[in-house]
Amino acid sequence: MKNPTKMARIFRAYGIDKNQMEVGLKMVSRKSCIGIIVCICFVFGLASVSLAAWGTKELETEKIAVNLVREVARGGYGIVTTEELKGWIDQKVNMLIIDTMPYADSYAKQHIPGAVSMEFPIPEMKTLDNKTKAALEKLLGPDKNRLIVFYCGFVTCTRSHNGAMWAVKLGHKNVYRHPGGIKAWDQADYPVGKVK
Hints:
Blueprint: H1 4-13, H2 18-75, E1 78-79, H3 82-90, E2 95-99, H4 103-107, E3 116-117, H5 130-140, E4 147-151, H6 159-169, E5 175-178, H7 181-187
Parallel strand pairs: 1-5, 2-3, 2-4, 4-5
Helix pairs in contact: 2-6
């Protein structure tokens, strides 16, 4: 108490005697201490949850990021974000967008508007058979400077890596991979095409 005499006068004015005053102050002190303890526990609880989540997710994020960077380096193509690709579409940039997911299980159900379908496998393709090479060359066309974007399902899916890498190996110079794929496109709440 800063001024015990003044506090005593206030308590007397309200008909509170000394014993009631002491009990009241103890209760206020207990409630304040309990409140402070609860707040401290809550803060430490949040901090520990945040630190636990921060630590485990970061290792997985690092692994995915490093793998993506290595694929891009091996493939020799560029990458485009979901937002950038949407901007290109909105600006009506002349480009070929290729969905590399299975036709019936993915492309037919949802795809980026204007995309065409050409399925690629998940494991990195060290070789390209003649039939697949001829189909890819036909799809890409003769213009080696044409803007071409490959995508698949999500960042860790490597179908789009295979498509983009082989387009570069066939001499195309303006090739991009949209790593977020249809999952990122859908999460951005952008419109999707469907086969009827």
